[in-house]
Structure formats: structure tokens, C-alpha cells
Write the C-alpha cells for this entry.
Amino acid sequence: MSSDVNFFGKDIVSMRDFSRKDVEYIMDLAEEMLPYAKGEKRTKCLEGKILGNLFFEPSTRTRMSFESAAYRLGLHVMDVTQTSMTSITKGETLADTIRMVDTYCDAIVLRHPNEGAARLAANVADSPVINAGDGAGSHPTQTLLDLFTMKRSKGSIDDLNIVLLGDLKYGRTVHSLSHALTMFGAKLTFVAPESLQMPHDIIESLKSKGCNPYMTDDLNDVIQDADVLYVTRIQRERFPDPNEYKKVAGMYRVNNEALRESKKDLIVMHPLPRVDEIAPEVDSTEHAKYFEQAFNGIPIRMALLASVMGGEL
């Protein structure tokens, strides 16, 4: 695949570091990776290299899809899934932990509960660092697989009408995604209770890029015009006050009745895990794309690993 885009040795920390050209390059490469991600073809383009997979916060899809992506590329994986397995429990700083892992691996994937942890890791490591989610901050690989899913489902991302629903305050996925969607001229609508609306600084940043999102707390007002409905879980673990969580828990539930007035080709997405915000009855409809979306993490993460570590199919 020929391109003047070069990710070799680069850190993947935030979508704000990406241009549209960068995003399109990774999506095009992910398209080439699909048969490898499905096991229909085999490659060992990164054989002999080692990935440090550091997950200091619970994860199913992100951790396992990174592992799957690594193995599909021929990588060896050193997997750490909790801080209790590291010298952080002895008082070692994250910076020192990263410095040590850096000496053992050719690239590092980091998920951490603290916002800014990935940027710190990138600053101290010589090897490329990929942010797999840092607190309520950024989740760039999730954003890339979301964009990839939209492109594959709708043919193009340009000018789509996209409704983001749920926890927009603490949801790092929608923070990254909303910024990325401005590259494609998407129309954004934010549906959330006032206490969970998109943070002011993100809204101001979007406006500076020419995007003026519409904000409401009523999904029924906007569902009929949506091309994409992106649902997020109300994240109990992000709330400093449990009583505040109880006030908004279960406020939205997407079921077939809620989708009755939607476009026939509306797609429903969710970064998962879900609790009760999407009814199981939606799973069997043409709208549901969230399981396909989860699978798309494999080719996207294969594309990123191959790009930053220098592998070619």
C-alpha cells in the first residue's frame, strides 16, 4: 500500500494528533487487513517483535482485540492486566514502570484509569505507545474502529447526521469521536441529561472547527433524521457521587419502539459493554451494528500495530 503517510515509530495518543489523511490511511489499511483479521489469510509481518499489553483498568473488547490483532500479525505479547501484578504496588511510579517495559518490548499498549497517563508514557518511552483509553480522556483506537464501521456501513462518513446518546460527560469514546467527525463535516446532535451533556471545552473546540452541535435531552426529537445513533452506557464507575449516578441510571433505553420513526438504514452503534440502554430485541434488526463494530477493532488495531512497528503484508 503506497502512501506518503508514515506512522513508523509514532505514538497513538489522541485523535487530535490525526489529520483526515491519517484516518483514511488507517481505514484503507484496515480494509486490507480484514481477511487476515478473519483468519482467511495469514501473515507474520511482525514476527520476532514483542508487544507490551498493559491494561490497568478492566477491559474485554479492547484488550482481547489488541491481543488478537497482535497474534494475527505474528507478534509475541506480554500481557499485564492489573497493577497488582507490577511493582506499582511497591510504590514504583508509572513513568518508571513504562521505562522498564520499554526495554523489554518493541511497542506498548496502555489502558489506565488516569487521564493523561498515555501522554506521560509516550513522553518517557522510546518505543511507540498506543493509548487504549485513559480515564475519561481519549480512546483513539475506539474512534478509528467507529469511523471504520460507519464507512463500511454507509459507504462514506461525509455529511452524516450522527446522534450521540447517553453519558457524554464522562464517555471518552464520544469525546474522541466528536472531534474526529468534524474532519468529515458530520452534523452532530448530543442527547443527554443536562448533568451528562458534552463538556463545555469540547463543545467550544468543535465550534472552532465549524461544527455547531445541537443539544437536547429527548431522543424522540431527533431520531427521525439520524443516519447513525451512537449509544453510550451511563458509566457508574466514573461518577464521584453514587447518588448522582442513581438519578440518571436507566434514563434512556433504545428498543424497537424507539426506532419506529427512524430511517430504515439507520445504524445503531455502541462501544460496549451495554447494560440496559439497548434492548436485546434490537440485536436482530438491520439497525444493529455494535457487534460488527466490536469485531472491527481487530483490523483497525492490526493496521495501527503494523504501521507503528514497520510491518508490511
Remarks:
- The CA atoms of residues 133 and 267 lie 24 Å apart.
- The beta strands are 50-55, 76-80, 107-112, 129-134, 161-165, 187-191, 214-216, 228-231, 267-269.
- The chain has a mean pLDDT of 92.
